[in-house]
Design brief:
This protein is mainly alpha-helical. It has helices at about 1-40, 40-75, 80-105, 115-145, 160-170, 185, and strands spanning about 105, 110-115.
Length: about 190
């Protein structure tokens, strides 16, 4: 029973972590940053974002771990989804590595940037990588949605899916392959 439920729990957690991570990213980028910039200016908003992004990166790292588990448990596009989950995880790890380098160029007390040119270059890399990760995560999501029972988790022959398949085959009635309880002479 647990073997049948575990893949579904992993799928639920994968979808929930996707929604939390990427939904949070899209909401923050599309709503919070523009409103914060309009209210406080881009510099103050940038110093606020500096405090938020580590949490989004942690959410991304947790999500990528769950994506890996989910990709192992479900056979639909398994290798491709595993590869995408690894790419996402590597990208998030790079963001985590890059963040302190951006922070080192920022002085929160005076809201100043020590080297604008270096900051701008690193910030562009950070933003582009976030955008690429968003697109890759959407591909992972699309490949993760099963469209038929055959693409559901691998289970043994006693699983719910196997029972349903046996029931459908039994509902078709006897096949014209001959009765195994009679001889060829009796059928003729």
């Amino acid at each position: 029973m647990l073997a049948q439920i575990f893949p579904l729990v992993a799928r639920y957690l994968a979808m929930a972590s996707f929604a939390f991570w990427q939904g949070g990213f899209v909401f923050y980028a599309g709503v919070v940053v523009p409103l914060g910039t309009a209210m406080w200016g881009d510099r103050t908003q940038g110093f606020l974002t500096r405090q938020v992004t580590p949490w989004m990166n942690v959410a991304g790292l947790v999500a990528c771990g769950i994506f890996l588990l989910d990709s192992l448990l479900w056979r639909r596009f398994r290798r491709l989804r595993l590869g995408l989950a690894l790419v996402l995880g590597a990208g998030v790890l790079y963001l985590i590595w890059l963040h302190p380098h951006l922070n080192a160029l920022m002085v929160p007390e005076t809201e100043t940037i020590l080297d604008r040119r270096a900051f701008r270059m690193l910030h562009k890399i950070y933003l582009w990588l976030c955008t690429v990760l968003w697109m890759v995560s959407l591909v992972w999501l699309g490949l993760s949605i099963p469209v038929s029972e055959q693409q559901c988790p691998e289970t043994n022959e006693n699983s719910v899916g196997s029972e349903r398949k046996r029931d459908q085959e039994n509902a078709k009635g006897p096949q014209k392959l001959g009765n195994p309880n009679t001889s060829a002479a009796q059928e003729a």
